[in-house]
Amino acid sequence: MNSPTIRPRAVVAVVVAYNRRELLAEVLEALRAQRHPLARIIVVDNASTDGSGEVALAAGDAVDLVSLPRNTGGAGGFAAGMAVAVDRYEPEWLWLMDDDTVPTPDALAALLDSVAGTDLVVAGSRVVWTDGTEHPMNTPRAKAFASKSERIDAARHGGIAIRSTSFVSMLVRSDVVREVGLPIADYFIWNDDFEYSTRVLRGRRGIHVPASVVVHKTKVLGSTDADPGARFYYEVRNKLWMFRRSRSLSAFEKLLYGASSVRRWILTFARSSDRAVLRDGWKRGYRDGTRTRPRPNAMSMAGLGGASEAIARVDR
Q: Cα–Cα distance between 316 and 311 in angstroms, integer?
């Protein structure tokens, strides 16, 4: 397919969907209502069984549906959606979010205003829960060793210099996506956005923009040390993959964030109502995190038709 004419500040949104059709409909309505219009909306349906794909198809010509024959998790969904967006439309920016992230009408405009005329490559929104409370699950990591000039410049643009941000409303420059590659699909869930945003921001600048607000409609208001149950496996495995294999962090940062992760794991165990499940997740996560490594996306995302082809072109 030929790429459309590129407009200045053209933005393509990428929404990863899995079995939340009512929320997906709300997200798509909010995206169409943005004060700064989107060039396109890519919805990646991760093999939903509730008709989420039909919701995307019914949303109009501005929405492209990428239907995956198997659930590739949030990490695989974003890898597929970002690849299709960059390969097919060549926008200036990608705006990433889950299907339970409802942006307020000025959310995108505020992000774009913060990066206009700068060398910033990432901007993240303020994430609140349904009652307006700051959502602790999506708190960005401030850039601990930002220079004074970088902090002043971020404040001048209404934000805070960051070292990482969440896929719950992350604006990223598409030329940088081509430079550093896509999220690692084998992460499946958890820490995929931590690894990716720190990879993009290593040696580059990003900003947290409180004026850009999105509502993350999770079932409960929980932080990253809330009891994850069996999913604790992914937290442990992916963190070990990241600290041992990824080049997104410096050696000192790996020590710093590694210590923080151990502290959070201890808190998670202390607050858990079923520590046997967490012990099992930790054992399996430690085993796989130390004995294996994530596969290249071309391998883990093979057999997905056009999405696989786009991933191969963007991630080479």
A: 8
What separation in angstroms does the CA of 73 have from each of 5, 252, 262, 295, 301? 32, 30, 25, 15, 11
Closest CA to 197 of 120, 270, 128: 120
Which residue, among 246, 94, 109, has the nearest Cα to 175 in the 3D structure? 94
pTM over cut 0.70: yes
Please report which residue ranges of 73-123 form alpha helices under DSSP H: 73-89, 107-115
| Mean pLDDT score of the chain | 93
249-269 per-position pLDDT tens digit: 999 999 999 999 999 899 888
CATH 3.40.50.1220, domain 11-221+293-314, yes or no: no
Instruction: Please give the helix or strand (H or E) that residue 311 lies within, else none.
Output: helix 306-314
> Which residue, chain included where needed, has tokens 């307006």?
132
pLDDT tens sequence across 46-104 = 999 999 999 999 998 999 999 999 999 999 999 999 999 999 999 999 999 999 999 99
Residue 162 host element (H or E): strand 160-164
- Which residue bears the tokens 């604790």? 232
Neighbour tally for 39: CB within 10 Å: 20
Domain locations in the chain as residue ranges: 11-221+293-314
